[in-house]
C-alpha cells in the first residue's frame, strides 16, 4: 500500500467517526430533555467514571491515555449540549444582560477617579487617557485605591496590571480577589522612564536612586552600568520625584517621567533609560458597580479549579472548542490553601457573543469558585 491508500483509509474512518459522533450528540440531547422533564442534574460523575473505565478497557493499555483525553472532551461537549436544554438562564447571564442594558452608551467624560501615588504618576496619565476631565484623588497604596472604590468615595479607580517588560503586578491580582470590583475599561500607556534629580546634579554625583519596584525592573540594564549607587524602592515613580525635590540633596535621583521633572522643577540627567523602548504598562479602570459599555470585546474572570490532573486542561479545551482566544493566563497562590491557585483569564470575545455566555456559565458551574470581573474595551 502507498500513502494515498492509507489516506483513503483515514478518510473512510473519519466519515464513520463523524457519523457516530453526530449520533452520540443527538442522543445526548435526548438525555438532556429527559433530565429536564425529570428535574435531574446535568452532571453525573459516577456514570462518566464508569463509562470511561469501560471504554478504556475495550481499547487496552496502548491507547489508555489517548482515550481518556478524547472522551474527557466528548463528555464536556455532551454536558454542554445538555445544559443548553436543561439550564435556565444563569444568575451571571442575567447580571450581564442587565449591565449591558443599564450602562450608558458613552463612557463618562467626567468622574471622581482614584489613583495610587501623587501628581505626575503614570496612573494619572492613564486616567487622562480614559477620561477627558477626571477629578483625581491620590492614595498611598493600591489597596487604598480599591477601598476608595469599594466604599463609594470614588466611582472609578486606575491601577497598573502588567508591563510589557517587567510582567504582571501581582498585588493587583490578589486585591481583585479580595475586593468585589469590576473592570470597566483598560488603557495602555507608553512608559518612557527618565532619570531626574536636582538641577545641576551630574550622573557621577548620584549615590542613591529612588523609584517604584516595577520601574526599577524596567531599567535593570541602565542601573547595572552604575557603580556604587544604591537603588531604593518606594511607593510610586511620582512620589520618588517628589521625594528628591523635597530633599534638597544633589546626590540622589529618581526614575520617573519627564512630566514629573517639570512638575517638581527637577533636572533631567538621562531620558529613555528603560531597557525596552517599546515599554507599555496596561492599566485597568475598576468600579464598584458592574458596567458594560458598548463595544466591550474583552472579558476577565478568576477561577479556583479542583486540585486534580486535567482541571486546567478542561478549561482550555472549552476555549478551543468554542473558538475563543485566551489572551492572558495568570496564576496566584492561595495563602490559606496548600499548593492551590487562583487562575486569572483575559478572554478576547465580544460581549454580544452567545459563545461567551455559554463559556462563562459552564465555567461557573464547573469551578470550585468563580468570579466574573467584567467585560470591557481597551484604549491603546
Major sheet summary line = 10 strands, mixed
From the alpha carbons, calculate the radius of gyration and give it in angstroms: 27 Å
Tally of helical segments: 13
The oligomeric status of these chains comes to single chain
How much helical structure, as a percent, in the residues?
A: 40-55%
Please trace the helix and strand order, writing H or E for each element. HHHHEHEHEEHEEEHHEHEHEEEHEEHE
Q: Class by helix and strand content?
A: alpha/beta
Relative strand content: 25-35%
Tally of DSSP β-strands: 15
Q: Tell me the span between the first and last alpha carbons.
A: 57 Å
Uncertain ranges: none
Shape: elongated
Helix and strand layout, with pairings?
Blueprint: H1 3-37, H2 45-59, H3 64-86, H4 91-102, E1 110-116, H5 122-130, E2 133-139, H6 142-150, E3 156-163, E4 167-168, H7 170-178, E5 182-190, E6 194-197, E7 208-211, H8 213-218, H9 220-224, E8 230-233, H10 237-247, E9 252-256, H11 258-263, E10 267-270, E11 280-287, E12 298-304, H12 311-321, E13 325-333, E14 341-348, H13 354-366, E15 369-379
Parallel strand pairs: 1-2, 1-3, 5-15, 7-8, 7-9
Antiparallel strand pairs: 3-4, 3-11, 5-11, 6-9, 6-10, 12-14, 12-15, 13-14
Helix pairs in contact: 1-3, 2-3
Describe the structure.
This protein is of the alpha/beta class and 380 residues long. It has 13 helices and 15 strands. The strands form two sheets. Strands 1, 2, 3, 4, 5, 11, 12, 13, 14 and 15 form a ten-stranded mixed beta sheet that branches. α5 (122-130) links the parallel β1 (110-116) and β2.
